[in-house]
């Protein structure tokens, strides 16, 4: 099975964490629009330059930029053409409509997490700027303080994981992205999963929702 799956959910709901596990399990790419954008910013491309301000403020990057980016990944010749775990897209109904023109999805998972837990998790998130591994200072700290277990690089906090930006991202999510779940519910593709449980438990529930139909 090489499914075509979308993970929805608030900032910090665990989309990236679960997407990694699912991508490994099914042998398909994990496509994270947040990671792709951060790479564009790092490389100083024109897209990265345009996206950076929106990201730092916790706002959405305009639909036309995002849709063009995702067409490149999922269209014929893209790395997700034979299955994927898509994390961070779609975030608006316009993006969901555009995605429906490109691929037929097998399942959409909505990871549910209350706002207090979002703030708690994201404030404690640290990431490795070199290999991308994600840590949580409270729940999954690195073995050596401040250093990546995999490659030894000093860990950093994401620009948009400051408390005021986290709150803003959550508000943007409620206003712009929550209606996307409704879009998929009406099409019979949506399954809700409680994300406020240990990673392995959430993983089992997500797998059941994908494999069980
Ligand atoms: P993006 O990178 O997609 O950010 P996000 O949606 O806000 O999601 P996060 O990466 O913050 O969280 P996550 O759900 O992946 O959680 P994670 O697994 O890391 O987007 C960033 C920005 O890019 C956006 O604000 C926007 O500007 C732009 N953008 C991206 N896509 C766009 C689009 N389509 N349209 C427009 N703009 C777009 O987990 C979080 C923390 O919790 C970690 O520390 C982790 O270790 C921990 N954790 C995870 N699961 C658990 C668990 N079960 N129990 C305890 N801790 C857990």
Spatial order of strands in the largest sheet: 2-3-1-4-7
Q: How helix-rich are the residues, as a percent range?
A: 40-55%
Taking the sheet with the most strands, its summary is: 5 strands, parallel
Question: What small molecules are bound in this structure?
Answer: BIS(adenosine)-5'-pentaphosphate
Could you tell me the number of beta strands? Answer: 7
Can you offer a commentary on this structure?
This protein is of the alpha/beta class. It has a domain at about 5-115 and about 175-210: P-loop containing nucleotide triphosphate hydrolases (Rossmann fold, 3-Layer(aba) Sandwich). It contains eight helices and seven strands. The protein has a five-stranded parallel β-sheet with strand order 2-3-1-4-7, with helices on both faces. The chain has a two-stranded antiparallel ribbon with strand order 5-6. Helix 2 (about 35-45) packs across helix 3, helix 4 (about 65-75) runs parallel beside helix 5 (about 95-100) and helix 6 (about 115-125) crosses helix 7. The two termini are about 15 Å apart. The model has no long low-confidence stretch (mean pLDDT about 95).
């Amino acid at each position: 099975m090489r499914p075509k799956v979308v993970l929805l959910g608030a900032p910090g709901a665990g989309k990236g964490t679960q997407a990694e596990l699912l991508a490994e399990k099914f042998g398909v790419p994990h496509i994270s629009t947040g990671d792709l954008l951060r790479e564009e910013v790092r490389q100083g491309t024109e897209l990265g330059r345009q996206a950076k301000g929106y990201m730092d403020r916790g706002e959405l990057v305009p639909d036309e930029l995002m849709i063009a980016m995702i067409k490149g990944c999922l269209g014929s010749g893209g790395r997700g053409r034979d299955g994927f775990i898509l994390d961070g897209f779609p975030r608006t109904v316009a993006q969901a409509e555009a995605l429906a023109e490109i691929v037929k999805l097998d399942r959409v998972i909505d990871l549910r997490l209350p706002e207090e837990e979002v703030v708690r998790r994201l404030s404690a998130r640290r990431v490795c700027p070199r290999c991308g591994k994600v840590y949580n200072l409270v729940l999954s700290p690195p073995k050596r303080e401040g250093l990546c277990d995999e490659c030894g690089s000093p860990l950093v906090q994401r620009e948009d994981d400051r408390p005021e930006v986290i709150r803003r991202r959550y508000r943007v999510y409620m206003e712009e992205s929550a209606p996307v779940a409704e879009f998929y519910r009406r099409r019979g593709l949506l399954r809700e999963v409680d994300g406020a449980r240990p990673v392995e438990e959430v993983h089992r529930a997500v797998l059941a929702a994908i494999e069980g139909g």
